[in-house]
Write a structure and sequence with these properties.
Length: 221
């Protein structure tokens, strides 16, 4: 396992009445990123948070805020999330009628650009966009809810993406894996090529979230 992977705890599984505590946990555990799952009850059957919450988080942390938009018409939310203080904005390929346009909007907002695909979308669908993005988020569960099991077929997708990036001098593009990432499979997923691991329930539903974050990083040494 590479020692330079980053953990992005997803606050989706945290206590929404006390997000300061979630930030404290991330800080004490040494997590690199804060993953914010944005759901609109249209692209996915769940409803979560918007720019005001990101704005509040921004006031309380220096950490990299990683916004994962699971929304239709992503172009409408780029500017609000950028203004709220997001560092990275990821949109879903399946939700965009014009991916290039969304990428350009995110880029010109000053944020890093991420593109995500759902489990049933094949990775080759986004090969033509890879030279324009900073990261690819591979969903390893159906988006919408935390606490689901890792879909095995994601392994091959990560491998294919990793080798495509290597072969095309695109190593700067990061691979983020989101869904069902636990302590027991973290090493496996990083060995396949992941640079960033999102973990929600494994961190925030554990009895000691700070030590769980530290355990993820210990797996790397
Ligand atoms: C699901 C979200 C994930 C989710 C992961 O749609 O994108 O970020 O919070 O949760 P776990 O780690 O519990 O699978
Ligand atoms: Zn996510």
């Amino acid at each position: 396992m590479k020692s330079n992977f980053k953990l992005a705890p997803s606050i989706l599984s945290a206590n929404f009445s006390n997000l300061q505590s979630a930030l404290d946990i991330c800080s004490e555990g040494g997590a690199h990123w804060i993953h914010v799952d944005v759901m609109d009850n249209q692209f996915v059957p769940n409803l979560t948070v918007g720019p005001p919450v990101v704005k509040s988080l921004r006031r309380c942390t220096q950490k990299f805020i990683d916004v994962h938009m699971m929304v239709v018409e992503p172009e409408k939310l780029v500017e609000p999330f950028a203004r709220a203080g997001a560092d990275n904005i990821t949109f879903h390929y399946e939700a965009a009628s014009n991916s290039e346009k969304v990428i350009d909007l995110i880029r010109s907002s000053g944020c890093k650009v991420g593109i995500s695909i759902k489990p049933n979308t094949s990775i080759d669908k986004i090969y033509h966009l890879l030279d324009k993005v900073d990261l690819v988020l591979i969903m390893s569960v159906e988006p919408g809810f935390g606490g689901q099991g890792y879909i095995k077929g994601s392994d091959q997708k990560i491998k294919n993406l990793k080798s495509y990036l290597n072969q095309n001098c695109l190593d700067r593009v990061m691979i983020e894996v989101d869904g069902g990432v636990k302590l027991h499979n973290a090493k496996h997923v990083v060995d396949l090529g992941a640079d960033i691991l999102v973990a929600g329930s494994e961190v925030f539903k554990s009895s000691d979230p700070v030590s769980t974050i530290k355990k993820f990083y210990k797996l790397a040494s």
